[in-house]
Amino acid sequence: MSKQPRKQRKVLYNAPLHARRKYMNVNLSHDLREDFGKRSLAVKVGDTVKVVRGEFKDTEGKVEKVDVKKFQVLIEGVNVNKTDGTNVVFPIHPSNLVIVDADMKDDRRNKILERGE
């Protein structure tokens, strides 16, 4: 893989959806890192995340939607008022998030953690 930023971006933007899902990983909080023995996990609906960069820094909320095609995560409580007065959920890039509480109801996610992938 190339070191050039333009080629790195090109690979990211032209990747198929199943490959893009792997790029949607979010760092874990320090407590969860010790518990799981991993640095990051794929973000999933139901996870509680904290915004660490941008306008909504230090805001926590549950993940409402993960948009793999646009590299966006929609979080409950991260809203913007539009000029017509309506409230819209503001999309956040996964690199600006930290998982505070992971939703471990999914068997597949538990198996991923067990095998250390």
UniProtKB/TrEMBL annotation:
Keywords: Ribonucleoprotein, Ribosomal protein, RNA-binding, rRNA-binding
GO CC, alphabetical: large ribosomal subunit
BP-aspect Gene Ontology terms: translation
InterPro entries: KOW (IPR005824), Rib_uL2_dom2 (IPR014722), Ribosomal_uL24_euk/arc (IPR005756), Ribosomal_uL24_KOW (IPR041988), Translation_prot_SH3-like_sf (IPR008991)
Gene Ontology molecular-function annotations: rRNA binding; structural constituent of ribosome
Domain KOW: 42-69
Subunit-level organization: Part of the 50S ribosomal subunit.
HAMAP family given in the database record: Ribosomal_uL24_A
Function: One of two assembly initiator proteins, it binds directly to the 5'-end of the 23S rRNA, where it nucleates assembly of the 50S subunit. Located at the polypeptide exit tunnel on the outside of the subunit.
UniProt record similarity statement: Belongs to the universal ribosomal protein uL24 family.
Name assigned to this protein: Large ribosomal subunit protein uL24
Source organism (scientific name): Methanobrevibacter curvatus
Organism ancestry: Archaea, Methanobacteriati, Methanobacteriota, Methanomada group, Methanobacteria
